[in-house]
Model the fold of this input.
Amino acid sequence: MAQKGIREYEGKKILFDGLSEFIASFKGRSAKLALVRPDTDLKKLAKENPWLEKERLVVKPDQLFGKRGKHGLICLNADWKTAQKWIAERMNKTVTVGKTTGELKDFLIEPFTPHKEDEEFYVAIRSYREYDTIYLSDKGGIYVEENWERVKETNVPVLSSIDEIELNMPAVGDRKKEIENFVRALHKVYVKGHFTYLEINPFTFSGSDIVPLDLVARLDDTAAFECGKIWGELEFPSSFGQHYTKEEMFIRSIDEKTGASLKLTILNPEGRIWNMVAGGGASVIYADTVCDLGFSKELANYGEYSGDPSTEDTYQYAKTILDLMTRKKDPRGKILIIGGGIANFTDVAKTFKGIIKALTEYKSKLIENKVRIFVRRGGPNYKEGLANMRKLGETLGVPIEVYGPETHMTAVVSMALKEKSNVKKTAKTGGEK
Amino acid sequence: MKPEIFSKDTQAIIYGYHVNAIQRMLDFDFACSRKKPSVAAIVNPGSDGWHKAFFGKGEILIPIYRDFASAAENHPEADVMLNFASFRSAFESTMEALNHPNIKTAAVIAEGVPERRARIIAATAKKLDKIVIGPATVGGIKAGCFKIGNTAGTYENIIESKLHRPGSVGFVSKSGGLSNECYNIIARNTDGLYEGIAIGGDAYPGSTLLDHILRYEAIPQVKMIVALGEIGGTEELKIVDALKSKKIRKPLVIWVTGTCSKMFPAGVQFGHAGAKAGSELETADAKNRALKEAGAIVPDSFDDYGMKINETYKNLVKKGIIKPAEEVEAPSLPMDFNQALKEGKIRKSTTFITTISNEKKEELEYRNIPISRIIESEMGIGGVIGLLWFKKELPSYARKFLETSIILTADHGPAVSGAHNAIVAARAGKDIISSLVSGLLTIGPRFGGAIDGAAQEFKRAHESGLKPEQFIKEMKSRGIPIPGIGHRVKSVTNPDMRVTQLKAFCKKHFKNTALLDYALEVEKLTTAKKGNLILNVDGCIGICFVDMLNSCGFSKKEIDDIVNLGCLNALFVVARSIGIFGHIFDQKRLKQPLYRTPYDEIAYMTDL
Done:
């Protein structure tokens, strides 16, 4: 959903192909990029990319993290043999970058460009509501942050073309013309390719040709339908060190197939408090309330379902959560909050039908795990939905408390979390007037 | 831009044929006692015409256009465009509407509009001094005046939340789902909503929280403003600036959701695309703090939101700033037929009865037998005819008899009237159905009717106890040949093998061949007169058919019904359709030209 980081490998391919329309030296450059993954056949790769055996190479991990030089994760000026050895020594190894630990899985190989250290430039483009801002500095590389005052900014309003805008240029001497051309072309590729962030730090020169060295890029994945050709085959990798559980992947796969929305993030699989909340906005408030009451460590998941999902999808969603929450018993029991606001058009009876089916299937596991259930919901057919929940409560064998719009949306959270003795009789939504 | 964008006369052009949303808008109109429906026209790129909808207790027609331009041209009074187009086409359709002089406000429902497209929409709206609500929103509502699409849900909820008449509170939030929740909270804690807008959960909504707060600031009837912000983005910080610079002077109750994010690992994406803090400034805690410092009324948690709203409201009433809006009773909406039926409030007599098949079961059923069992048990087409025509499971000999009859009568060459007519029609270039029926239409007393006729006549004679010779005499006196007797070429000495086989089959398998035996007695007498007056294949089928029914245990009444209903004719039609189709396909494959009867086939005797 929306802004997503992409690998340097695909980022450069998209960029080089785009730039080649404006700058001749970028023609064919995208062919000299190779990605090595755990299952890559290196012999085949070398056969398809003869330049690997002919040129001096740069190798670096390509997994959405920066500061690779600082962590000794870059191999410069290598031949193909050295590059293979360097990768083999690091593939599937666990490393810690900053606060994040993860396995190295993807490596980018590209031709090595020798350059003078005083010829490293910085360019970045970031999108804001009303304009894109281009950041440009003659002091690139690792020095850009300490020299941030040297960075020149140019705003390109959303309805303007870069060609109408005068660029605010740093002192780049006789490279001015080339750099200005490059930046203008870069912005055009940025717009056409639906980039949301782009940083090249540094770029340098090989003779009179501009060579981007390190690149960070984010794309707007909602533009996939109009960027198929420009992006080519593109996958959005998860951020370094992050991996999704089987259940999270499963919910993602359902989410992608329907017009409705289904989200699940596991925060703490052993947490006692599980939320099954309808609505992108309401789900955040339920999580807030759990944390406000001091139970953030016990909160097991964040998730939401919305946009009138089918009974079957809601059933699958509920089943996934029930399965996760009944895997490991906790002597204090567990809490399931089936919450939500007053729906605009989601059919409450229909979505609850799926949830009730899942609850019924998990009856014995719910009893074993001492689950208590709290329901709060409103919207189309809510009376029928709530009545069905109450009816289920008579036979399910675990307590279900059911509330409608007359009860404040998050009141069920305090009811569920506060010990029975000191529940102040719940705050009703309605104050007296 | 004028602060008021909707009134009791506002009309919208709906882009996309969303029947439920349109009906909900019209129902809201009824709740508000609007005179003019809020939907002026529908744009449906697929087709044009008229949409019939309820407007209160009666019905109205809403015109449907293929393109936006024609809708706008024909409905100059409509200044709102409500866009239900998908994320793929939302951009183009919204831009077209924005660039049309009639349109002042556009609401974009689609989720997943690319960010750059959304930014272009927002910038264009700003340039043209228009308002865009959305993308990724349910819309908004002006109490007692105008409602966008599905906003505020059901009619019942609209009345419960007092949205059919204006109160004193202006509301804005990102979330569409929560806005409805908040209308409920506002209704319970104040004299009600004046206007509420959900700007949508994307990173770049067409109009912002602040845009609407500033509108409310400028509308005299709005006495207090309630807002709901969200983690991510810096929009709420602009509200802080506006509070500081006194651009917002009315009491503002606001809460920013997402305070839990500090407890979460980085990278958790909440339900809304824009809900992700890029920096410390964008966290919910920071925004709540800054708003409070700038003078907004900020609760400690969402639990206290209603309470703060209530306190603020009571304060304004005490100061005399708010004179509580009068309660207006909303008209009760006639219940939708389907809803009433579902709830068991009404009953309805049906117009059709069926007793032979049911497609509403788990699996299609013929006469209570699931189709899978029909196939597994290999009951064949004869068995299916038994179920659907006679409502009985037939024994295998009866099924075999029916199938044999179909085989025997499937075709009889191109010269007979049925095939001939079908061939002529096919050669005239007519489609297969027309060609088929032009052949079938010749079936009747003279062509193909013998099966039915034989069954009828022999059965009548046999049942009324006529001796064979009496029967023959009677038919002769009535001046009609006995149906099922006689063949053009075949005779006693040159028997029709089809008949021989059929007779043998029935004798062997049927429990009862009384009518066949009777017919053979008749045949003995007729062939004695003339060798070709044999029981022909049509007669044999018709007569054995009656014996078959008797053998299977059908009652006399059932047999009478089956024969009188014309089931035998039907059997012939089914069988002969196979042959007629064969002739049609044959002619079409051979690309035969239009048939014209040659002159030498016609005797012109007009001079006679």
